[in-house]
Amino acid sequence: MDAARIAELLHYDLVRASFVPPQEIRELRDPVRRRVHLTQDRNRISNRIHRLLELQNVKLSSVLGKMTGKTARSILEGLATAQTMKPEALALLATHKRVRAKREQLAKALRCRLNDHFRSPLRELLEELDRLTGKIGLLEARIAERMQPYQELIERLCGIPGVDRLTAWTLISEIGLDMGRFPRSGHLASWCGLCPGNARSAGKRYSGRTKGNRYVRRAMVQAAWAAARISRKRCFFTTFFCRISSQAGMKKGAVAVAHRMLLVVYSMIRDGAVYREQGADYFDRLHPERTKNRLIARFDRLGYVVHLEPKLSPETG
C-alpha cells in the first residue's frame, strides 16, 4: 500500500527531489567527512588518556588546561617511559614560560605510584594518538590540494568571524556552489537543521530541535562559539550571541548565531559577495531611541536622575 501511494504521488509529480550535489562536490564530501570521523576518534583517545590518569590519581588536567599541548605531551611521554623518575623531575619538563610558574603544582599533581600496569596502556594510547594525528595531517594535505579551485571562495568565507579553513571546506563539500537548489536562505537553514522547530500540539510547544545535515550543523555551531568568544575585537555575532543567550540560554544562542551565519554564507556563495562587518553596536544604531530609553531606565533603577542633551556636530558648533 505504501509503494502504491508513492507511485501515485510520483505519477502526478507531487514528490520533490532530494538535494544531490554534482559529482565533483560529492567526491569532496568523503575526505572531509573522513577527517571529522578521525578527529572524533582522536578525541576519544584523549578522553581515555585522561581517564587513565585519573585512575592513577594523576591530576595533570587540574594544572594544565590543555592536555594536547607540547608541555602535557612531554610529561605524558615521561610518565610512559620513566621507571623511577621523581615528580619534581617530571615537572621540570614544563619548559613553556606560562607553565614554569606552575612547576610546584605540577610536582604535587604528578605524585603517584607508577607501574607497568599503568605505563603499558599509556604508551599504547599515545601511539594511537600519534597515528591518528598523522592520518589527519595527511588527509588535510590531500583536502587542501583538492580545494585549490575554490581558494577564492574559501578566503571570502574565512572573512566571517569564527569561520576558519576547515569550516569553509565543510560548507563547500556539503552545500556546493549552486544555491539555485535552495529558493531562499531559509530553505538552506532548514536543510542544515539550523532553523527553529515548530512542533506544537493543542497549544503546547514541544522540542524545537530539527533534523538536518549534521556535518554543516556541527561546523556552523563550532564557528558560532568561536565568534561568540571573540573578546579582543567584538563583532556583530558577539553582540547577537549575548542578546539571544541572555534570554534563551547559551546553547540556543549559539544555534541562533549559527543560523544567522549560514544566511550570510548563502548570500556570499550565491552573489559572490564579501562579508561586511556590521559592528558590535549594530542594534544600538538600529533603534537608538530604544537604546536610550533602556539605559535611562537602568540608571533610574540605580537611583540616578539622568538628563540627556543631543551632541552637537562640529559643523553646527
Q: How widely separated are the two ends?
A: 82 Å
Q: Describe the strand arrangement of the main beta sheet, using strand numbers.
A: 1-2
What are the secondary-structure elements, in order, as H or E?
HHHHHHHHHEEHHHHH
- Give the uncertain stretches in residue-range form: none
Q: Could you report the average pLDDT, rounded to the nearest whole number?
A: 85
| Tally of structural domains | 2
Describe this structure in words.
The protein has 317 residues and is mainly α. It has 2 domains: 28-146, Helix Hairpins (Orthogonal Bundle); 149-271, no CATH class. Helices cover 61% and strands 1% of the residues. It is built from 14 helices and 2 strands, in the order αααααααααββααααα. It has helices at residues 2-11, 23-55, 70-81, 87-91, 103-109, 116-146, 151-157, 165-175, 185-191, 214-228, 236-248, 250-271, 282-286, 288-301; strands at residues 200-201, 204-205. It has a two-stranded antiparallel sheet with strand order 1-2. Helix 11 packs antiparallel against helix 12 (250-271). The longest helix has 33 residues, at 23-55. 21% of the residues are buried. The model has no long low-confidence stretch (mean pLDDT 85).
What descriptive keywords fit this protein?
317 residues, two-stranded antiparallel sheet, globular, 14 helices, 2 domains, single chain, Helix Hairpins, 2 strands, mainly alpha
